[in-house]
Design brief:
Length: 666
């Protein structure tokens, strides 16, 4: 068999050979990432320049990102008793970056300045590793750092998770006894951040009216910040710290459902360029709940079924997933790329600089725990058996998570970004998001191939010149009963087109299927409406690494390839099986295996999508579409194609009787 040549990367080969199971091994991997940054670092260490792409903020702030974000890992390594022989680069950078007389000065803070974001990493570093990064500095340097960090205390900040960055600036300054620490400002910010809390451990990323609950509500910002604060401020603020720990206990029992047994997290929302920061909650939880330094009488118990071995497994499997199986996440020298599984600028927000991906270093917070800690001495455990083959309603996030049949994903309605963000319809508006298959983003807005329309109902009203998908969701809510619930929502792709969508999770009888129901109503009889509903987009190459061919044995074959006919379409590759079936009462849509444009899907750069297509032109008459979507990822650790799934494919999911009755009344 002809194989494509892949030039070996010394960095990736070393990462793959590292088991990443012990503290020493994880520290070694972090050190290799830090080493890779050295050639890109300015002479006095304050700026790291990793590329020439732009952001909405200035270039100096972008290079500050490159400097500050790796500190999440470096400071944790030092705090846990480890060492890094080039730590002086960052110590020097702290001094020169905050010195107004230095050529590498970062610049003073202004209102809503990107520099504020980077204060959280620096404040954390001062809090946990001041002995290495603060104590050796001159008094002048300490005054400059205090002035620079304290300069944000009288500035306007976005009313979001950003307020945590000022909390950590003041926390860090207080830990090193800088006179620029503002305890009153910190407590006011903490009181306001508490207004974001909505119950059961969950916080939204902003005030009342904000609806998105993405990874900023968990591993990227809020939950991690609460956990770190609960550890670092226990003596000064015990009641608040206890509150944060209790929130984390509740949240952990939900958040674990966003991870699969292989260590992958469900791809959802913005800023996925941060990659393994998606798992940072587990590192922060371990840091906050560890009692290896003695029992201070505080309750640090973990909620069942979580154990120290479970937490360790969740965190380290995620790091191993990136280090061992995703070479495209790093360039050949070991620099994190702008993308997800591979370099992909279609994914990026306008605030993603070449240094932005190093937010991923939050996953290394577990290194702040010493070798003899409960986390590092625990035997790593697999994903809890009691949580496998389960479905869980996330009432605050308006999502339903499931891992029935071995596929971890969520159904979603009601999530949307409260401000303009690139590709928001793809990041928040899709019907389903998977840990294995990921989601796709458009590379343009014209053809269906450019759209990357997985897990959505794409609508065209101009002869398929352009396509629209669900972006803003109205009236989202749960329906059903205690035994089974589903999501219902309204959306309006055009002023004269109303779509109501129901999303029904899988059942034990048909664990690899979920159902979607759409009621479409058009008010304009002159409009011809084209629809294309997509399943999961998956890897689209065959074993010979050429494009998948149509299977020869029709719908009876488990062979890799594509299959499409009236009412169904299916794709089989080394990634798994993804298919879609039309179960509509009055219409039959045409199945198609669509090769989407390259670099649309975040996991597979060359992807194929199973779709159902049709056209309608009916005024004031409900058009009912009922869709079954099938998905089975193949285990990445297996070297052979899984077989035996045809039996599940031949089954058909059954609508809840309430929805069946609603359709029958049409």
């Amino acid at each position: 068999m002809t194989k494509a040549f892949t030039a070996p990367s010394l960095f990736h080969e070393r990462a793959r050979s590292n088991p990443l199971r012990s503290r020493t091994e994880v520290a070694s991997f972090l050190a290799s990432m830090l080493d890779a940054l050295e050639p890109h670092t300015s002479p006095d260490g304050a700026r790291i320049h990793l590329g020439y792409t732009a952001t909405h903020f200035d270039e100096v702030a972008a290079q500050l990102e490159g400097f500050s974000r790796p500190i999440w890992g470096l400071a944790s390594l030092l705090a846990g008793g480890g060492s890094y022989n080039r730590a002086s680069r960052w110590r020097s950078g702290l001094a020169s970056g905050t010195d107004p007389e230095s050529e590498e000065f970062w610049g003073n803070m202004r209102d809503k300045d990107q520099r504020m974001v980077e204060c959280s990493a620096i404040g954390y570093a001062l809090s946990v590793a001041g002995h290495e990064l603060w104590d050796p500095l001159s008094e002048t340097a300490k005054i400059n750092i205090g002035n620079w960090l304290g300069g944000m205390n009288d500035k306007e900040m976005p009313n979001t998770n950003w307020l945590w960055f000022r909390v950590f600036a003041n926390l860090g300054l207080s830990k090193v006894e800088s006179p620029r620490a503002d305890a009153q400002r910190m407590q006011a910010d903490l009181d306001h951040l508490d207004t974001f809390y909505i119950g059961d451990g969950w916080s939204r990323d902003g005030p009342d009216g904000i609806v998105q609950l993405d990874y900023y509500s968990s591993s990227f910002a809020i939950q991690v910040a609460q956990l770190l604060y609960s550890k670092l401020a226990q003596k000064e603020d015990p009641k608040r710290c206890e509150k944060f720990r209790n929130r984390a206990r509740m949240f952990a029992l939900d958040f674990i459902h966003y991870f699969d047994p292989e260590g992958r997290a469900i791809l959802f929302g913005r800023s996925l360029v941060y990659r393994f920061a998606m798992s940072a909650f587990w590192s922060a939880l371990a840091f906050a709940f560890d009692t290896s330094n003695g029992d201070d009488g505080v309750d640090y118990s973990l909620p069942a079924p979580l154990t120290w071995g479970t937490i360790k497994g969740l965190q380290l499997r995620n790091i191993r997933y990136w280090a061992h199986t995703q070479p495209g996440a790093f360039d050949r020298s070991g620099i994190l790329t702008l993308g997800f599984s591979y370099p992909n600028h279609n994914l990026l927000e306008n605030y993603n600089s070449p240094g932005s991906p190093y937010w991923a270093c939050k996953a290394f917070i577990c290194l702040a725990l010493p070798e003899n800690s409960m986390f590092w001495t625990a035997e790593e455990e697999e994903y809890p058996i009691s949580l496998r083959n389960t479905t869980k309603v996330m009432k605050h996030a308006l999502q339903i998570t499931t891992n029935l049949g071995g596929h971890t994903y969520l159904l979603s309605s009601g999530q949307q970004c409260s401000y303009p963000v690139k590709q928001s319809a793809a990041k928040y508006g899709k019907f389903a998001y998977s840990a294995a298959f990921g989601y796709s983003v458009p590379v343009a807005s014209l053809t269906l191939e450019e759209l990357g329309g997985d897990s959505t109902l794409a609508i065209s009203g101009d002869g398929e010149e352009t396509w629209k998908c669900r972006r803003v969701t109205k009236e989202a809510r749960f329906e059903g009963n205690d035994e089974k619930q589903w999501l219902r929502s309204m959306w309006y792709p055009f002023p004269d087109v109303e779509i109501e969508t129901w999303l029904v999770p899988p059942t034990l009888d048909t664990p690899l299927w979920h159902l979607r129901v759409h009621r479409i109503r058009m008010q304009n009889s002159d409009r011809v409406l084209s629809t294309a509903e997509g399943s999961w987009a998956i890897y689209g190459q065959a074993q010979d690494e050429r494009a998948l061919d149509p299977v020869k044995d029709g719908d009876e074959s488990e062979s890799e390839g594509t299959y499409a006919s009236e009412g169904l379409a299916r794709v089989v590759s080394k990634a798994g099986v993804a298919g879609i079936v039309d179960l509509s009462p009055d219409v039959t849509r045409k199945g198609q295996a669509l090769r989407t444009d390259a670099n649309t899907n975040l996991v597979s750069a060359r992807a194929v999508l199973s779709v159902l297509r049709a056209e309608y032109q009916e005024k004031a008459k409900d058009i009912w579409l009922v869709t079954g979507v099938f998905g089975l990822p193949f285990d990445q650790n297996e070297n052979h194609q899984r077989t035996g799934w045809m039996e599940e494919w031949k089954k058909r999911p059954v609508l809840p009787k309430e929805l069946a009755e609603l359709i029958s009344m049409k």
